[in-house]
C-alpha cells in the first residue's frame, strides 16, 4: 500500500494520465458526504418518490397498480370524510397548541418565583409528560366514562350535570385536547422556564423602581423576552399535535362516528383497513404539504417578531 | 347414510370418553384419514387472539401426537392479524400455511385475490378426509361463507356467531314486563324498563361506528332489508333501512345508557353484567363472562332468547370464522389435516362447551352428548334456534370495512339526533363509488 501512495506524485508530474488527473480532481469531500447521502436517499428521498409514484396509481392491496394520473388527488376535495378530517386536524392542533402554551406560560411564571418545596413541586408537575401516551389514554378513557368515570363524579360534587365527554360528537375534540393539554403543558413550562431564567434581573429592578405593576412587568418585560421561547414551544407542540395519533386512536378511534377523525386516523384507515394504498399515498402527500405550510407560517411569524424585538431593544 | 351410522355411534362414545376422562381425541374419529402420512412436517398457523385461536393453540400437542406434524402458531389480535395476513398474502410469500379468517370481513377479498387453496379435492379424498366430514354437514350459512362463486371450498367453516337477545329476568319481573316477541314490543318494553334516576336502562348495544353495523343489520334484516340488488348495487338507503334506523335511533336515544354512541360490545356487556341494562342484542359468545361470578353481578338472572321478529321476518344476523390454507403454501396436505382437526368433533365440542363459539357443523351442534356438556342450556337453545333463522349480517363485498365505517358513522350520527333518511342517503352516496371501484378492479 505504501508503495502506491509513494508513486502517485510521480505519476501526476509526468504522462497523460497525470495531466488528466490534474484537470479532473475527484472532489475530496465525496467520501465524507456519501454515507449521509446514501442514508438520505434511502430513507427520505426514495420513500418520498415512491409515495408520489403510488399516489398516481389506483392500487388496492391484492390487485396490481394501475396508473390513474391525478385521479386520487381529484377525489380528495369531494371526499367528505377527508375534508372533515382536515378540519378536525386544524381545530385539534390549534387548541392543543394554544392551551398548553397558555397554561404552560402561567405555570412557568408561578414556578419561576421562589417558594418552599419549589423543586419538588416542579418535579411533580412534569410527571404527566413522562407517561406513555397509550397508558394515559386508557386511564382517561375510564375517567371519561359517563356513568362510571370520575370526571362526572367530580362534576356532581360541584352540582354540575354529567357530561358525555368523548362519547358525544360536540365534546369529543375538546375532551381529547384536555388530555393533550394535561400531558404537554409541562413541556411548555420547562421551555418557558428556561426562557425566564435567561432574562437578566436589571430590567425588573428598574421597572419596580419606576413603579410598574406585576402585570405591566410581565406584559412589557417578561413576555417580549420569552417570545422566542414561546415560538419554539409552539413549533414543537404544533408538530406533535398535527401528527397526534396514539391518544385519539386509543380513546375514540376517531369516533363517535367520525367526529374526532383527524387526517392521521383517516389515513390509517384508508391504508391499513381499506388497503387503498394509492389513495392513502395521495392523502400523505397533501398532509405533508399541510404540515410544511403550517411550519412555514409559524417560522415566518417568528422571524417577523424576532426582528421587531431586535428593533425595539436596539 | 347407513355406513356412517355405526361410526357416528363410535364418535359419540369417543367424545363421551374424551369428555369424561379427559382423554385426547384421536380415537374419536370415524373412518380415519392417513393422519401419519405427513409426519415430520412443520406448519405455521396464523390465528386470531381470542377463545378460538387459543383453543387450537392449547390442544396443538394433541394434533402433533395424532399426526406427527409440528405446528407453530402465531396468535395476534384481530385487527393486526387481518392487516398482517393481507400484507403477507399480497407479497406472495406468506410466512404461514394455515390462516384463520373472518368471513364477514374477508371472504370476498380473499376470493377475488385467490389467496386460499381450493380444498374441494381434499374433501373428496378418503386418504385425507375422515368419513364424517362432508360438505353437507356444514350449515347453509357456513357453506355460503366458504364456497366461492364456482362452488369450490376454499376454507373450512369453523365457528359461527349468531346474534341473540340477552335479557335480565330480574329487571323484567320488577317492572312486570314480558319478554318481547317483536321489535315493536321490544321498543315499548325497553322504554318501560328505563329508569334513569336509578341508572337502569332498558336496552344497550353497539353505538360505536363500524361495530354498530352488526346490531343494526339484524334490525335491517327483520325489516325485510337486503344488502345488494341483483346487479350488486348497495341498498342501505331504502325504506327498510330507514325504518330499521329509526328503530335503532329510538332505542339508542330513549332507552340506552348515556354515551352509547361510543359503546362497543365491551361497554355494552359491562352495562348488562353490572345490572344497569335490561336487554342487550349481540353475538352469542358472551355467556361465559355473563355467568362468571367474578365478572358479573347478574349470574343466573340473564335469559337468552331470539332477536325479536320484525314486520318482515325474524332472522339472526350471522358472522363467522373459517380456517384455510394459503395458496402459496407448499405443505397443503399437512395443513389440510390441521384444518380438519380444527373443525373436528372433538375440537368443535370443546369450542361449544367453553362458550367460545359455535361450530358450523350440524353433527356437532345436534349431538346430545356434546350438548349435555354445555353449562347454560338456555343459551344453547337460543343458539340452536338462531341457527335455523340465520342470515348473513353483512354484504359479501370487498370493501366491507369501508361499508361498516361509512354506514356505521351515519348510524352513530342518528344517535346524536341526525335524521335517519338523510344520513343513510349521504352514506350511500359516499359508499357507492367505492363499491363500484372495487368491483371494477
Question: Would you spell out the secondary-structure blueprint of this structure?
Answer:
The complex is a heterodimer of chains A (314) and B (441).
Chain A: H1 2-13, H2 16-23, H3 30-55, E1 57-58, E2 66-67, H4 71-78, H5 80-112, H6 118-125, H7 127-130, H8 133-144, H9 150-157, H10 169-198, H11 202-209, H12 214-242, H13 246-251, H14 263-273, H15 277-313
Antiparallel strand pairs in A: 1-2
Helix pairs in contact in A: 1-2, 3-15, 5-10, 5-12, 5-14, 10-12, 12-15, 14-15
Chain B: H1 4-21, E1 42-48, H2 51-58, H3 60-67, E2 70-76, H4 78-91, E3 98-102, H5 103-113, H6 120-124, H7 140-146, E4 156-168, H8 169-175, H9 183-193, H10 212-222, H11 239-254, H12 265-273, E5 279-283, H13 287-290, E6 302-305, E7 316-325, H14 332-342, H15 345-354, E8 358-359, H16 362-365, H17 368-372, H18 377-388, E9 390-392, H19 400-415, H20 420-440
Parallel strand pairs in B: 1-2, 1-3, 7-9
Antiparallel strand pairs in B: 3-7, 4-5, 4-6, 4-7, 4-8
Explain this structure to me?
The complex is a heterodimer of chains A (about 325) and B (about 450). In chain A, helix 10 packs across helix 12 and helix 14 packs antiparallel against helix 15. Chain A starts with a helix and ends with a helix. Chain A is an all-alpha fold and about 325 residues long. In chain A, strands 1-2 form a two-stranded antiparallel sheet. Chain A has two domains: about 55 residues, no CATH class; about 240 residues, MetI-like fold. In chain A, about 75% of the residues lie in helices and about 0% in strands. Chain B has two domains: about 220 residues, Periplasmic binding protein-like II (D-Maltodextrin-Binding Protein, domain 2), CATH 3.40.190; about 200 residues, Periplasmic binding protein-like II (D-Maltodextrin-Binding Protein, domain 2, 3-Layer(aba) Sandwich). In chain B, about 45% of the residues lie in helices and about 15% in strands. Chain B is built from 20 helices and nine strands. In chain B, helix 9 runs parallel beside helix 11. The longest helix of chain B has 21 residues. The radius of gyration of chain B is 22 Å and the shape is globular. About 5% of the residues of chain B have low confidence. The chains are: A mainly alpha (about 325), B alpha/beta (about 450). Chains A and B meet through helix 14 of A and helix 4, helix 5, helix 19 and helix 20 of B.
